[in-house]
């Protein structure tokens, strides 16, 4: 059995914000990301790869940075399944902003600090020292522009981008009634006609997504019907689809 990895502060440079696998502009897109997360969740046995918790599990991207003076290379090494607490600590810069805004309570803030000390078996002074160092590195890296290498997901990202390009090309060349606008088509517009599990026709009901939890571009794509999830009334199969 693999030894759990240490809990580290892994702040993403500001110049890389939005460049992640979930992005519908740069990465796999929400639905392909959800499918990947489910597979990794199964492989992880439904437990955090750092602390072993099974509470509120997330997919966490681990990056390697090769820095230059003005330009560097960011390589996606792997995606880990980790719990909310470990994820909040890994992205401590964003967590601090949520603490200052009141979105994360003082009690939760203290619990996160305690979680770091427990997992890493260290003192509070160690957490403070690592936080200071991580913020300094983040500030330096945020002044650099990055070339992205998607690592083991390079081919999957290229395939997703190609699919989006082909869809947009079809939309720009297809003959449409003058009143139709796919940007206003609405969620579920491109849902499959048949259930891929039982082949029942017209049996898929849209599962509402919370577009408030998406980035602006992702929410626009969802509201345009470019991706979504549906459940079959006949067999209960859940279908994640993306144009």
TrEMBL record:
Top-rank taxon of the source lineage equals: Bacteria
Question: Which residue ranges does the record annotate as region Disordered?
Answer: 161-195
**Name assigned to this protein:** HNH endonuclease
Taxonomic lineage of the native organism: Bacteria, Pseudomonadati, Pseudomonadota, Alphaproteobacteria, Hyphomicrobiales
């Amino acid at each position: 059995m693999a030894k759990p990895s240490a809990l580290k502060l892994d702040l993403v440079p500001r110049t890389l914000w939005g460049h992640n696998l979930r992005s519908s502009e740069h990465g796999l897109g929400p639905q392909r990301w959800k499918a990947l997360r489910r597979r990794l969740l199964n492989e992880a046995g439904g437990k955090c790869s750092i602390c072993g918790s099974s509470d509120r599990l997330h997919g966490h991207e681990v990056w390697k940075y090769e820095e230059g003076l003005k330009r560097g290379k960011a390589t996606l090494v792997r995606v880990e399944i980790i719990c909310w607490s470990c994820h909040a600590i890994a992205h401590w810069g964003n967590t601090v902003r949520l603490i200052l805004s009141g979105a994360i309570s003082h009690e939760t803030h203290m619990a996160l600090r305690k979680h770091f000390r427990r997992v890493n078996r260290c003192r509070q002074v160690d957490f403070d020292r690592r936080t200071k160092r991580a913020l300094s590195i983040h500030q330096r890296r945020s002044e650099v522009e990055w070339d992205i290498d998607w690592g083991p997901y390079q081919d999957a990202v290229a395939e997703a981008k190609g699919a989006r390009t082909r869809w947009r090309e079809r939309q720009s060349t297809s003959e449409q009634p003058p009143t139709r606008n796919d940007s206003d088509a609405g969620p579920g517009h491109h849902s499959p006609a048949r259930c891929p599990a039982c082949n029942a026709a017209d049996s898929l009901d849209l599962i509402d997504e919370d577009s408030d939890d998406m980035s602006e571009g992702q929410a626009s794509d969802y509201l345009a019907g470019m991706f979504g999830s549906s459940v079959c009334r006949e067999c209960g199969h859940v279908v994640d689809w993306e144009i």
